[in-house]
Amino acid sequence: MKNSLKKIAGLLFIIFLVGGLLLAYLMQGFKGALIQNIPSLNLNNIQSGQNVFNELFYTVMGVYSIALICIVFLFISDNKAGKGDENSSNLKDSSKSQSEEDDADQRIVNDDEIEDSNLKEVAQIINSEGDTEKILEKAITKISNFIEAGQAAIYSKVREDDKTKLNLIAGYALSFGEGRKISFDIGEGIVGTVGKEKRLLEINDIPDGYINIVSGLGKSTPNSLLVAPIVENSTVYGVVEIASFKNFSDAQKEYISECLTYMAKKLKNEAKAKKEDNKSENTND
């Protein structure tokens, strides 16, 4: 019942209650009033009239009682329904909250807390399901387009032939075919050095042919090269290499740094999944 109906029911309750009490008072004094105002009336006639009015009184009071009971019943039913709706609403809110918490737990990056729209888009890409290399390629493409980079590459740290390597797994506008494998040992070249030392390296005014020889980004010669480790909790999961035809601003470097934290979580999650798969295979064998 809505609030307006509650008010109407309450008003009716008061009217019925006051009216019933007033009627009871008037009818109880009916006999005395007749004798006082009409002395010539026969007492038997008065008694007969009193009986008729008594029947009327009890009938009216019965109707009033039923009406009052109905109004009280409506109030009680409405309160129970209100509590039921409230409990149902609380249950739905609780379920929704739990569902949102579960979704947040499954996401690699909690993008709900990210206010910057460009960072949020990268986080949403990282959170998407599918092949990790394709997801990272979408992410580095988004990053490169936003900062107007010429080329970019992502290297993932792997263990091969008892050596720790950084293998190219994704890129943006690379000048060589997809079938070409680019790999660096830890400590080898710019990429390997950044992976080993875990620190960002920025090179401006790059000489012609320098990237083609050292970084593996192809034959183009940009003006600035940014190479940064993909790190979480002091653990290197990869290296990103971004080339631009203009120097990187502080805002761009801050943006890249934040995006790298998302990539680190993705690569960490991927490494954990592979480790569990290998453990499961060894157990089955």
Walk me through the structure:
- The protein has 285 residues and is an alpha+beta fold.
- It has two domains: 1-42 and 53-77; 128-282, GAF domain (Beta-Lactamase, 2-Layer Sandwich), CATH 3.30.450.40.
- Helices cover 61% and strands 16% of the residues.
- The chain has helices at residues 3-28, 30-37, 43-106, 117-127, 132-147, 189-197, 210-214, 250-284; strands spanning 151-160, 163-172, 183-185, 201-204, 224-232, 235-244.
- It has a six-stranded antiparallel beta sheet.
- The radius of gyration is 42 Å and the shape is rod-shaped.
- Mean pLDDT is 77; it is low at 100-105.
Q: How would you summarize what this structure contains?
A:
With 285 residues, the chain is α+β, with helices and mostly antiparallel strands. Helices cover 61% and strands 16% of the residues.
Task: Please supply descriptive tags for the structure shown above.
285 residues; alpha+beta; Beta-Lactamase; 2 domains; six-stranded antiparallel beta sheet; 8 helices; 6 strands; transmembrane; GAF domain-containing protein; membrane
